[in-house]
Amino acid sequence: xxxxxxxxxxxxxxxxxxxxxxxxxxxxxxxxxxxxxxxxxxxxxxxxxxxxxxxxxxxxxxxxxxxxxxxxxxxxxxxxxxxxxxxxxxxxxxxxxxxxxxxxxxxxxxxxxxxxxxxxxxxxxxxxxxxxxxxxxxxxxxxxxxxxxxxxxxxxxxxxxxxxxxxxxxxxxxxxxxxxxxxxxxxxxxxxxxxxxxxxxxxxxxxxxxxxxxxxxxxxxxxxxxxxxxxxxxxxxxxxxxxxxxxxxxxxxxxxxxxxxxxxxxxxxxxxxxxxxxxxxxxxxxxxxxxxxxxxxxxxxxxxxxxxxxxxxxxxxxxxxxxxxxxxxxxxxxxxxxxxx
Length: 341
What we know:
- The chain has helices spanning about 10-20, 35-50, 55, 75-80, 90-95, 130-135, 140, 160-165, 180-190, 195-205, 210-215, 220-235, 240-260, 265-290, 295-315, 320-335; strands at about 25-30, 60-65, 100, 105, 120-125, 150-155, 170.
- The chain is of the alpha/beta class.
- The chain folds into two domains: about 10-170, P-loop containing nucleotide triphosphate hydrolases (Rossmann fold); about 215-335, no CATH class.
- Strands 2-5-6-1-7 form a five-stranded parallel beta sheet, sandwiched between helices. A two-stranded antiparallel ribbon has the order 3-4.
- Strand 3 and strand 4 form a beta hairpin.
- Helix 1 (about 10-20) runs parallel beside helix 2 (about 35-50) and helix 14 runs antiparallel to helix 15.
């Protein structure tokens, strides 16, 4: 519990379920990225399995399903797939059973618990389950064996099918407040100076996971690089090199990510890089919106910019050319009515 900060409602709901002895068999843990959903899922599993801290990481009745598990599949085709989603075959291997290549797997969800206290299945980034994979676990969600619990951890619950959502209890997680983020940063002991820490605290917007990512990937330097161009936009001018610069930052991020992670998808890494950049630009826009809150015309300008950023993120889910997406974003931003605040 010491690792979980700022989630009193979610923790209260889960603790109440455990105390009452009436724990629902299927849960959705939803909320922004990096706020403690997965950490809480492991804590919940530890309580349900009556396990010690030292046992939970290697507990035989705790099954954590992440897309990266495909790398350890016995099936060559599954091992060599790019890690863009959670494949149905991975679910067959690890949870629901079925044929994968030449081998048939028993349904782990229906096997007898090794230690007798039940079984827990945590599916991380559950939004990466495609429609076929989601439909495949419906029966398990509807008719699970006794003492078998399934936790879907997601930052995008809207991507889960309504039939999935209707069968699950929902624990909602939020961002940390300023005091809680400061406490987390003190504990994390990131390698940052005072200016970098202050920037990361603002950029992360209450998400320890995003703060960690920003530190590891030097997003502060992205801000320093983009500041002159953002200044041009603020002055109503078009920064002609900004689209190219954004694309280069994404390319550098994606290459570094792929180099560090086996079978990582370059396309997925590119999209992650764009999302991080859009978050950076959104943080700048929210700050400017706050500074102009007493001017209705300026408020409208920055709200329009935020809408542009939101639309750009939505376009990532289509087969759009990332460089063109970013260049178009800059052009549309520059075409907005100039703010004067």
